[in-house]
Amino acid sequence: MLLPGAAKAYVHPSKLIDYLLSSTHSKGESKARVLAALGYTRANWTILRDDLVRVALGDVESSVVSPHGDRYAISGLLAGPNGESAVFLTHWIILRDESFPRFVTAYPRERR
Protein backbone atom coordinates (compact mmCIF):
# COMPACT_ATOMS: atom_id res chain seq x y z
CA MET A 1 0.00 0.00 0.00
CA LEU A 2 1.20 3.49 -0.81
CA LEU A 3 0.69 6.57 1.33
CA PRO A 4 -2.52 8.28 0.16
CA GLY A 5 -1.68 11.63 -1.41
CA ALA A 6 2.09 10.95 -1.20
CA ALA A 7 2.75 13.23 -4.17
CA LYS A 8 1.49 16.12 -2.00
CA ALA A 9 3.45 15.14 1.16
CA TYR A 10 4.28 18.16 3.29
CA VAL A 11 7.15 18.69 5.73
CA HIS A 12 6.88 21.83 7.86
CA PRO A 13 10.28 23.60 8.04
CA SER A 14 10.15 23.89 11.84
CA LYS A 15 9.86 20.08 12.16
CA LEU A 16 13.33 19.91 10.67
CA ILE A 17 15.04 23.13 11.78
CA ASP A 18 13.72 23.25 15.36
CA TYR A 19 13.29 19.52 16.03
CA LEU A 20 15.09 16.89 13.94
CA LEU A 21 18.17 19.00 13.26
CA SER A 22 18.33 20.64 16.69
CA SER A 23 21.16 19.55 18.96
CA THR A 24 19.35 21.20 21.90
CA HIS A 25 15.82 19.81 21.48
CA SER A 26 15.03 17.33 24.26
CA LYS A 27 13.53 14.74 21.89
CA GLY A 28 15.30 15.69 18.68
CA GLU A 29 18.93 15.90 19.77
CA SER A 30 19.71 12.18 19.39
CA LYS A 31 18.15 12.20 15.92
CA ALA A 32 20.11 15.36 15.09
CA ARG A 33 23.37 13.55 15.90
CA VAL A 34 22.57 10.75 13.46
CA LEU A 35 21.43 13.19 10.78
CA ALA A 36 24.56 15.32 11.27
CA ALA A 37 26.68 12.19 10.73
CA LEU A 38 24.92 11.87 7.35
CA GLY A 39 25.71 15.49 6.49
CA TYR A 40 22.30 17.06 7.17
CA THR A 41 22.41 20.43 8.93
CA ARG A 42 20.08 23.31 9.69
CA ALA A 43 21.76 25.19 6.84
CA ASN A 44 20.80 22.48 4.29
CA TRP A 45 17.44 21.47 5.79
CA THR A 46 15.75 21.59 2.36
CA ILE A 47 17.83 18.58 1.27
CA LEU A 48 16.48 16.60 4.23
CA ARG A 49 12.95 17.79 3.42
CA ASP A 50 13.27 16.56 -0.16
CA ASP A 51 14.73 13.24 0.96
CA LEU A 52 11.88 12.70 3.45
CA VAL A 53 9.32 13.44 0.75
CA ARG A 54 10.98 10.76 -1.40
CA VAL A 55 10.65 8.29 1.49
CA ALA A 56 6.92 9.12 1.61
CA LEU A 57 6.60 7.60 -1.87
CA GLY A 58 7.57 4.17 -0.52
CA ASP A 59 5.45 1.34 0.80
CA VAL A 60 3.49 1.88 4.01
CA GLU A 61 4.62 -0.53 6.76
CA SER A 62 1.75 0.15 9.12
CA SER A 63 -1.17 2.46 9.61
CA VAL A 64 -3.48 3.38 12.46
CA VAL A 65 -6.57 5.50 12.86
CA SER A 66 -6.12 8.16 15.54
CA PRO A 67 -8.50 10.82 16.88
CA HIS A 68 -6.66 13.42 14.77
CA GLY A 69 -6.41 11.48 11.52
CA ASP A 70 -4.86 8.47 9.82
CA ARG A 71 -1.20 7.83 10.73
CA TYR A 72 1.24 5.94 8.52
CA ALA A 73 4.76 4.55 9.02
CA ILE A 74 7.21 4.20 6.12
CA SER A 75 10.86 3.13 6.24
CA GLY A 76 13.36 4.44 3.75
CA LEU A 77 17.00 5.08 3.13
CA LEU A 78 18.27 8.60 3.70
CA ALA A 79 21.46 9.08 1.69
CA GLY A 80 22.96 12.17 3.26
CA PRO A 81 24.82 14.99 1.54
CA ASN A 82 28.17 13.58 2.68
CA GLY A 83 27.57 10.14 1.14
CA GLU A 84 26.75 8.36 4.41
CA SER A 85 23.32 6.74 4.68
CA ALA A 86 20.91 5.28 7.21
CA VAL A 87 17.47 3.72 7.20
CA PHE A 88 14.85 5.82 8.98
CA LEU A 89 11.32 5.01 10.02
CA THR A 90 9.16 8.01 9.14
CA HIS A 91 5.68 8.84 10.42
CA TRP A 92 3.04 10.76 8.51
CA ILE A 93 -0.51 11.84 9.29
CA ILE A 94 -3.46 12.84 7.16
CA LEU A 95 -5.51 15.08 9.41
CA ARG A 96 -9.29 14.64 9.43
CA ASP A 97 -9.96 17.86 7.53
CA GLU A 98 -7.08 17.50 5.03
CA SER A 99 -6.31 15.36 1.99
CA PHE A 100 -2.50 15.33 2.09
CA PRO A 101 0.05 13.69 4.40
CA ARG A 102 2.05 15.77 6.87
CA PHE A 103 5.41 14.67 8.24
CA VAL A 104 5.31 13.88 11.97
CA THR A 105 8.72 12.46 12.88
CA ALA A 106 11.51 10.08 11.91
CA TYR A 107 13.67 7.61 13.83
CA PRO A 108 16.94 6.04 12.71
CA ARG A 109 16.71 2.28 12.24
CA GLU A 110 20.16 1.32 10.99
CA ARG A 111 23.26 2.95 9.60
CA ARG A 112 24.83 1.79 6.35
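The record above closes out task 2.4. Task 2.5 opens with a second protein, given below.
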Amino acid sequence: MLAALVCAGCASGAGSRSENALRRMMEGPVARAAARDAPQAYAEAARAAERARGLSGQARADAVAEVALLLEWAQAEGRTAAARRRRDEAERAATAAESEADRVEAQSTEVARMAEAQRAARAADQRAQRAVASPTSVNEAERAATAAEVRQSAVLLMAAARMLGADDAALATATRRMTESEREGLTPTQQLTTAGAAYTAAEEALRTFRASRPTPANATRGADLSTALSQAGGLDPHRDERGVVLVLRGLFTGATLSPASRARVETLSRVLRTHADARVRVEAFAGGPARAAAEARARAQADALATALAGAGVARERIQSAGVYRLPNGQRGDDRVEVVLVLPGEP
Protein backbone atom coordinates (compact mmCIF):
# COMPACT_ATOMS: atom_id res chain seq x y z
CA MET A 1 0.00 0.00 0.00
CA LEU A 2 2.85 2.47 0.82
CA ALA A 3 4.63 1.62 -2.42
CA ALA A 4 1.43 2.25 -4.26
CA LEU A 5 1.06 5.61 -2.56
CA VAL A 6 4.65 6.55 -3.36
CA CYS A 7 4.19 5.54 -7.01
CA ALA A 8 1.00 7.54 -7.07
CA GLY A 9 2.87 10.50 -5.64
CA CYS A 10 5.60 10.09 -8.29
CA ALA A 11 3.01 9.92 -11.01
CA SER A 12 1.35 12.96 -9.51
CA GLY A 13 4.67 14.88 -9.60
CA ALA A 14 5.35 13.88 -13.23
CA GLY A 15 1.84 14.92 -14.17
CA SER A 16 2.37 18.34 -12.62
CA ARG A 17 5.62 18.76 -14.52
CA SER A 18 4.03 17.78 -17.84
CA GLU A 19 1.06 20.06 -17.16
CA ASN A 20 3.43 22.96 -16.46
CA ALA A 21 5.34 22.16 -19.66
CA LEU A 22 2.11 22.14 -21.65
CA ARG A 23 0.99 25.43 -20.14
CA ARG A 24 4.34 27.09 -20.84
CA MET A 25 4.29 25.87 -24.45
CA MET A 26 0.70 26.91 -25.13
CA GLU A 27 1.11 30.30 -23.47
CA GLY A 28 4.62 31.03 -24.76
CA PRO A 29 5.74 33.32 -27.63
CA VAL A 30 5.96 30.45 -30.14
CA ALA A 31 2.30 29.51 -29.56
CA ARG A 32 1.20 33.18 -29.67
CA ALA A 33 3.01 33.72 -32.96
CA ALA A 34 1.54 30.50 -34.38
CA ALA A 35 -1.98 31.47 -33.29
CA ARG A 36 -1.55 34.79 -35.11
CA ASP A 37 0.24 33.67 -38.27
CA ALA A 38 -0.91 30.03 -38.73
CA PRO A 39 -4.25 29.61 -36.92
CA GLN A 40 -5.09 26.24 -38.49
CA ALA A 41 -1.75 24.67 -37.52
CA TYR A 42 -2.03 26.21 -34.06
CA ALA A 43 -5.53 24.76 -33.69
CA GLU A 44 -4.13 21.27 -34.36
CA ALA A 45 -1.45 21.77 -31.68
CA ALA A 46 -4.13 23.01 -29.25
CA ARG A 47 -6.22 19.90 -29.88
CA ALA A 48 -3.14 17.71 -29.26
CA ALA A 49 -2.48 19.57 -25.99
CA GLU A 50 -6.04 18.93 -24.88
CA ARG A 51 -5.65 15.22 -25.66
CA ALA A 52 -2.35 15.11 -23.73
CA ARG A 53 -4.04 16.43 -20.61
CA GLY A 54 -6.25 13.33 -20.60
CA LEU A 55 -3.26 10.93 -20.64
CA SER A 56 -0.73 9.86 -18.03
CA GLY A 57 2.73 8.40 -17.76
CA GLN A 58 4.78 7.81 -20.88
CA ALA A 59 1.76 8.29 -23.11
CA ARG A 60 1.39 11.77 -21.72
CA ALA A 61 5.10 12.50 -22.15
CA ASP A 62 4.91 11.35 -25.76
CA ALA A 63 1.81 13.48 -26.31
CA VAL A 64 3.56 16.53 -24.84
CA ALA A 65 6.49 15.94 -27.20
CA GLU A 66 4.01 15.74 -30.07
CA VAL A 67 2.53 19.07 -29.00
CA ALA A 68 6.01 20.60 -29.07
CA LEU A 69 6.56 19.29 -32.60
CA LEU A 70 3.17 20.56 -33.72
CA LEU A 71 3.97 24.01 -32.33
CA GLU A 72 7.28 24.02 -34.18
CA TRP A 73 5.43 23.06 -37.34
CA ALA A 74 2.85 25.79 -36.70
CA GLN A 75 5.68 28.27 -36.16
CA ALA A 76 7.25 27.25 -39.48
CA GLU A 77 3.86 27.55 -41.18
CA GLY A 78 3.42 31.01 -39.66
CA ARG A 79 6.82 32.14 -40.88
CA THR A 80 6.02 30.82 -44.34
CA ALA A 81 2.67 32.61 -44.32
CA ALA A 82 4.32 35.82 -43.13
CA ALA A 83 6.94 35.51 -45.85
CA ARG A 84 4.22 35.04 -48.44
CA ARG A 85 2.40 38.10 -47.15
CA ARG A 86 5.59 40.15 -47.35
CA ARG A 87 6.18 38.84 -50.86
CA ASP A 88 2.61 39.66 -51.89
CA GLU A 89 2.86 43.11 -50.32
CA ALA A 90 6.13 43.69 -52.15
CA GLU A 91 4.57 42.57 -55.41
CA ARG A 92 1.57 44.82 -54.84
CA ALA A 93 3.86 47.71 -53.97
CA ALA A 94 5.92 47.05 -57.10
CA THR A 95 2.76 46.91 -59.22
CA ALA A 96 1.45 50.09 -57.61
CA ALA A 97 4.81 51.80 -58.15
CA GLU A 98 4.81 50.70 -61.79
CA SER A 99 1.24 51.93 -62.25
CA GLU A 100 2.12 55.23 -60.58
CA ALA A 101 5.16 55.58 -62.82
CA ASP A 102 2.96 54.91 -65.86
CA ARG A 103 0.40 57.42 -64.60
CA VAL A 104 3.02 60.09 -63.98
CA GLU A 105 4.57 59.45 -67.38
CA ALA A 106 1.18 59.64 -69.07
CA GLN A 107 0.35 62.78 -67.12
CA SER A 108 3.67 64.35 -68.05
CA THR A 109 3.07 63.47 -71.70
CA GLU A 110 -0.43 64.95 -71.53
CA VAL A 111 0.85 68.10 -69.81
CA ALA A 112 3.58 68.46 -72.44
CA ARG A 113 1.03 67.92 -75.22
CA MET A 114 -1.34 70.46 -73.68
CA ALA A 115 1.48 72.97 -73.25
CA GLU A 116 2.45 72.51 -76.89
CA ALA A 117 -1.17 72.95 -77.93
CA GLN A 118 -1.41 76.13 -75.89
CA ARG A 119 1.79 77.45 -77.44
CA ALA A 120 0.35 76.71 -80.87
CA ALA A 121 -2.87 78.51 -79.94
CA ARG A 122 -0.97 81.57 -78.72
CA ALA A 123 1.21 81.54 -81.82
CA ALA A 124 -1.88 81.43 -84.03
CA ASP A 125 -3.37 84.37 -82.12
CA GLN A 126 -0.14 86.31 -82.56
CA ARG A 127 -0.05 85.53 -86.29
CA ALA A 128 -3.62 86.78 -86.59
CA GLN A 129 -2.71 89.97 -84.74
CA ARG A 130 0.29 90.53 -87.01
CA ALA A 131 -1.86 89.89 -90.07
CA VAL A 132 -4.39 92.47 -88.87
CA ALA A 133 -1.67 95.02 -88.16
CA SER A 134 0.25 94.39 -91.40
CA PRO A 135 -1.59 92.39 -94.09
CA THR A 136 1.35 92.58 -96.48
CA SER A 137 3.54 90.73 -93.97
CA VAL A 138 1.56 87.58 -94.77
CA ASN A 139 2.75 85.50 -97.71
CA GLU A 140 0.52 86.33 -100.67
CA ALA A 141 -0.41 82.67 -101.19
CA GLU A 142 -1.67 82.47 -97.60
CA ARG A 143 -3.64 85.72 -97.47
CA ALA A 144 -7.02 84.28 -98.43
CA ALA A 145 -6.82 81.51 -95.82
CA THR A 146 -5.55 83.96 -93.20
CA ALA A 147 -8.40 86.33 -94.04
CA ALA A 148 -10.92 83.55 -93.39
CA GLU A 149 -9.33 82.87 -89.99
CA VAL A 150 -9.31 86.55 -89.08
CA ARG A 151 -13.00 86.86 -90.02
CA GLN A 152 -13.79 83.81 -87.87
CA SER A 153 -11.91 85.36 -84.94
CA ALA A 154 -13.90 88.57 -85.40
CA VAL A 155 -17.14 86.60 -85.24
CA LEU A 156 -16.01 85.00 -81.96
CA LEU A 157 -15.13 88.42 -80.51
CA MET A 158 -18.60 89.66 -81.39
CA ALA A 159 -20.14 86.57 -79.77
CA ALA A 160 -18.24 87.32 -76.55
CA ALA A 161 -19.55 90.91 -76.62
CA ARG A 162 -23.10 89.63 -77.01
CA MET A 163 -22.61 87.36 -73.99
CA LEU A 164 -21.94 90.48 -71.95
CA GLY A 165 -25.12 92.11 -73.30
CA ALA A 166 -23.94 94.03 -76.36
CA ASP A 167 -26.78 94.66 -78.84
CA ASP A 168 -26.85 95.27 -82.59
CA ALA A 169 -26.20 98.99 -82.12
CA ALA A 170 -23.04 98.34 -80.11
CA LEU A 171 -21.79 95.99 -82.81
CA ALA A 172 -22.99 97.97 -85.83
CA THR A 173 -19.54 99.02 -87.03
CA ALA A 174 -18.09 95.55 -86.62
CA THR A 175 -21.07 94.04 -88.45
CA ARG A 176 -20.67 96.49 -91.33
CA ARG A 177 -16.95 95.75 -91.57
CA MET A 178 -17.71 92.03 -91.58
CA THR A 179 -20.15 92.43 -94.47
CA GLU A 180 -17.54 94.38 -96.41
CA SER A 181 -14.96 91.65 -95.85
CA GLU A 182 -17.29 89.02 -97.30
CA ARG A 183 -17.95 90.78 -100.62
CA GLU A 184 -17.31 88.75 -103.72
CA GLY A 185 -14.52 89.65 -106.09
CA LEU A 186 -11.99 90.81 -103.51
CA THR A 187 -8.37 89.96 -104.10
CA PRO A 188 -6.60 87.94 -101.36
CA THR A 189 -4.92 91.13 -100.16
CA GLN A 190 -8.25 92.98 -100.05
CA GLN A 191 -9.84 90.02 -98.26
CA LEU A 192 -7.18 90.15 -95.56
CA THR A 193 -7.31 93.96 -95.29
CA THR A 194 -11.10 94.06 -94.89
CA ALA A 195 -11.07 91.05 -92.54
CA GLY A 196 -8.49 92.86 -90.42
CA ALA A 197 -10.75 95.91 -90.30
CA ALA A 198 -13.65 93.71 -89.17
CA TYR A 199 -11.48 92.10 -86.48
CA THR A 200 -10.28 95.49 -85.22
CA ALA A 201 -13.85 96.81 -85.10
CA ALA A 202 -15.07 93.72 -83.23
CA GLU A 203 -12.23 93.94 -80.75
CA GLU A 204 -12.88 97.63 -80.18
CA ALA A 205 -16.62 97.02 -79.76
CA LEU A 206 -15.99 94.40 -77.10
CA ARG A 207 -13.49 96.58 -75.29
CA THR A 208 -15.73 99.66 -75.45
CA PHE A 209 -18.85 97.83 -74.33
CA ARG A 210 -17.03 96.22 -71.41
CA ALA A 211 -15.61 99.59 -70.33
CA SER A 212 -19.05 101.24 -70.57
CA ARG A 213 -20.52 98.96 -67.95
CA PRO A 214 -19.87 99.41 -64.23
CA THR A 215 -17.67 96.62 -62.94
CA PRO A 216 -18.65 95.24 -59.51
CA ALA A 217 -16.00 95.62 -56.84
CA ASN A 218 -15.79 91.86 -56.38
CA ALA A 219 -15.73 90.99 -60.10
CA THR A 220 -13.49 88.10 -61.09
CA ARG A 221 -10.13 89.20 -62.44
CA GLY A 222 -8.61 87.34 -65.37
CA ALA A 223 -5.33 86.79 -63.52
CA ASP A 224 -7.11 85.26 -60.51
CA LEU A 225 -9.23 82.96 -62.67
CA SER A 226 -6.17 81.84 -64.65
CA THR A 227 -4.36 81.04 -61.41
CA ALA A 228 -7.32 79.06 -60.07
CA LEU A 229 -7.57 77.03 -63.28
CA SER A 230 -3.83 76.35 -63.36
CA GLN A 231 -3.79 75.23 -59.74
CA ALA A 232 -6.78 72.92 -60.32
CA GLY A 233 -4.57 70.74 -62.53
CA GLY A 234 -5.14 69.36 -66.01
CA LEU A 235 -6.05 72.81 -67.38
CA ASP A 236 -3.72 75.30 -69.01
CA PRO A 237 -5.46 78.64 -69.50
CA HIS A 238 -4.39 81.61 -71.57
CA ARG A 239 -5.98 85.03 -71.93
CA ASP A 240 -7.11 87.12 -74.86
CA GLU A 241 -9.46 90.05 -75.37
CA ARG A 242 -12.51 87.84 -74.72
CA GLY A 243 -11.35 86.57 -71.32
CA VAL A 244 -9.71 83.36 -70.11
CA VAL A 245 -9.50 80.62 -72.71
CA LEU A 246 -9.00 76.88 -72.24
CA VAL A 247 -8.14 74.69 -75.22
CA LEU A 248 -9.28 71.11 -74.57
CA ARG A 249 -8.63 68.06 -76.73
CA GLY A 250 -9.53 64.39 -76.50
CA LEU A 251 -12.86 64.95 -74.73
CA PHE A 252 -15.08 63.17 -77.22
CA THR A 253 -15.73 59.87 -78.88
CA GLY A 254 -17.65 61.13 -81.86
CA ALA A 255 -20.15 63.56 -80.38
CA THR A 256 -20.22 61.86 -76.97
CA LEU A 257 -18.08 62.82 -73.99
CA SER A 258 -15.69 59.98 -73.20
CA PRO A 259 -15.56 58.52 -69.65
CA ALA A 260 -11.95 59.69 -69.36
CA SER A 261 -13.07 63.32 -69.81
CA ARG A 262 -15.23 63.36 -66.68
CA ALA A 263 -12.36 64.30 -64.37
CA ARG A 264 -11.52 67.38 -66.45
CA VAL A 265 -15.18 68.39 -66.68
CA GLU A 266 -15.55 68.11 -62.90
CA THR A 267 -12.32 70.05 -62.31
CA LEU A 268 -13.46 72.83 -64.62
CA SER A 269 -16.95 72.97 -63.14
CA ARG A 270 -15.53 73.16 -59.61
CA VAL A 271 -13.57 76.30 -60.54
CA LEU A 272 -16.50 77.81 -62.43
CA ARG A 273 -18.82 77.35 -59.46
CA THR A 274 -16.55 79.61 -57.39
CA HIS A 275 -16.38 82.32 -60.10
CA ALA A 276 -20.07 82.76 -60.77
CA ASP A 277 -19.78 86.04 -62.71
CA ALA A 278 -17.76 84.49 -65.56
CA ARG A 279 -19.90 83.71 -68.59
CA VAL A 280 -19.04 80.40 -70.23
CA ARG A 281 -18.93 80.05 -74.00
CA VAL A 282 -18.22 76.52 -75.23
CA GLU A 283 -16.90 76.54 -78.80
CA ALA A 284 -16.28 73.16 -80.41
CA PHE A 285 -14.19 73.20 -83.59
CA ALA A 286 -14.50 70.34 -86.09
CA GLY A 287 -13.14 70.03 -89.61
CA GLY A 288 -13.47 67.78 -92.59
CA PRO A 289 -14.35 67.86 -96.29
CA ALA A 290 -18.11 67.99 -95.57
CA ARG A 291 -18.68 71.31 -93.84
CA ALA A 292 -22.31 70.68 -92.87
CA ALA A 293 -21.44 67.36 -91.20
CA ALA A 294 -18.47 68.90 -89.39
CA GLU A 295 -20.57 71.79 -88.09
CA ALA A 296 -23.28 69.37 -86.91
CA ARG A 297 -20.70 67.31 -85.04
CA ALA A 298 -19.17 70.45 -83.53
CA ARG A 299 -22.58 71.68 -82.35
CA ALA A 300 -23.35 68.30 -80.80
CA GLN A 301 -20.01 68.28 -78.99
CA ALA A 302 -20.45 71.83 -77.70
CA ASP A 303 -23.96 71.04 -76.49
CA ALA A 304 -22.75 67.85 -74.79
CA LEU A 305 -20.03 69.69 -72.86
CA ALA A 306 -22.43 72.52 -71.93
CA THR A 307 -24.91 69.94 -70.62
CA ALA A 308 -22.17 68.16 -68.65
CA LEU A 309 -21.05 71.42 -67.04
CA ALA A 310 -24.63 72.25 -66.12
CA GLY A 311 -25.04 68.76 -64.68
CA ALA A 312 -21.93 69.37 -62.57
CA GLY A 313 -23.47 72.45 -60.96
CA VAL A 314 -22.70 75.36 -63.31
CA ALA A 315 -25.84 77.46 -63.84
CA ARG A 316 -27.15 76.71 -67.35
CA GLU A 317 -27.99 80.36 -68.01
CA ARG A 318 -24.29 81.18 -67.77
CA ILE A 319 -23.39 78.80 -70.58
CA GLN A 320 -23.60 79.29 -74.33
CA SER A 321 -22.52 76.66 -76.83
CA ALA A 322 -21.55 76.93 -80.49
CA GLY A 323 -20.22 74.61 -83.17
CA VAL A 324 -17.52 76.12 -85.37
CA TYR A 325 -16.20 74.77 -88.66
CA ARG A 326 -12.43 74.37 -88.47
CA LEU A 327 -11.10 76.04 -91.59
CA PRO A 328 -9.24 73.55 -93.79
CA ASN A 329 -6.26 75.85 -94.43
CA GLY A 330 -6.13 77.39 -90.99
CA GLN A 331 -3.15 77.57 -88.67
CA ARG A 332 -4.80 75.26 -86.10
CA GLY A 333 -5.10 71.90 -87.80
CA ASP A 334 -6.88 69.71 -85.26
CA ASP A 335 -10.33 69.45 -83.75
CA ARG A 336 -10.64 70.94 -80.30
CA VAL A 337 -12.93 72.60 -77.80
CA GLU A 338 -12.28 76.13 -76.59
CA VAL A 339 -13.99 77.12 -73.37
CA VAL A 340 -14.01 80.90 -73.24
CA LEU A 341 -14.70 82.43 -69.85
CA VAL A 342 -16.01 85.87 -70.67
CA LEU A 343 -15.45 88.26 -67.76
CA PRO A 344 -17.49 91.38 -67.00
CA GLY A 345 -14.37 93.43 -66.24
CA GLU A 346 -10.85 93.32 -67.61
CA PRO A 347 -10.09 90.06 -69.40
